[in-house]
Design a protein that fits this description.
Length: 301
Amino acid sequence: MKRQGVVTVQRQGVFYLIEISGLCKQYKEVRAVDNLNLTVKAGEIFGLLGPNGAGKTTVIRILTTLARPTGGKVLINGRKISRGNAVIKREIGVVSQRENLDIKLTARENMELHGRLFKLPPGERRARTKELLDFVNLSERAATAVEHFSGGMKRRLMIARALMHEPRLLFLDEPTVGLDPQVRRKIWDLIRSLNNRGITVLLTTHYIEEAELLCHRVGIMNRGRLIALGTPTELKQKVGKVVVEIPNNRVTGYNDETKYLVFENRGEALRYASGLQDNLVIRESNLEDVFVELTGHKVGD
Ligand SMILES: Nc1ncnc2c1ncn2[C@@H]1O[C@H](COP(=O)(O)OP(=O)(O)O)[C@@H](O)[C@H]1O
Ligand SMILES: [Mg+2]
């Protein structure tokens, strides 16, 4: 895929494609986003990780001009966003959490339709459609109605469609939710390869693995707040490097729930674990541990 005019980001120092300061969104009683401060650098795959209800979709909706914040400021590519801003809309692509393809139409027609909405000339529309269906490995199904597609194919088509007007910034809201592990990995490869072509990605997820394996930097959200920010490695180092998981067991007195204990190194973990029950798990720390440490519960709870 040739990217004309998209990869124009000047790399003199760090270039922030997204700058969020003091962002708030209040729905009646719920504070969906609570004083969020965050920057996303050009070229990054940035992940917002958090449980359901953390406020991730609300952040995406604000950044993509679909919702109006109740406080704070957002700049995209240096420009202030406002609801429905056409200039910003041309620079961003959005893949929403819910499937929103026209399922009676073919893959190609869905692409063409999006191209028309963005007023691409017919020749360019055709060329982009072909190139992008090829990129997401759907060329052979170009003339198939989307109602016959699997979940993974639909997600790939949504990603291709979002790239139709050559955005430099792509928002993906829970890009692999509900997909099988293998299909999920294919979507990750797709996200990496479009990132390699110069597209900055902001995605949301409640999958620990997805944040850890795919994202260059991760912001952990809980109840509207950003509670941790850094590379997966930095975040994991905050809680220690080795975790001992002790499942509930009457002998140890841990009756109600699994205990997680973190250690600087494997030796310390082993020393602690020796003589304890034998169904415990010793493993490297992950982002789930960071979340547990900060909130006292698991992302999935
Ligand atoms: N349109 C809305 N009206 C009222 N409350 C909302 C609305 N959208 C989201 N919320 C609430 O805001 C919080 C954050 O929701 P959301 O951004 O969808 O979280 P996430 O995407 O992390 O699951 C939740 O408590 C949710 O119920
Ligand atoms: Mg959501």
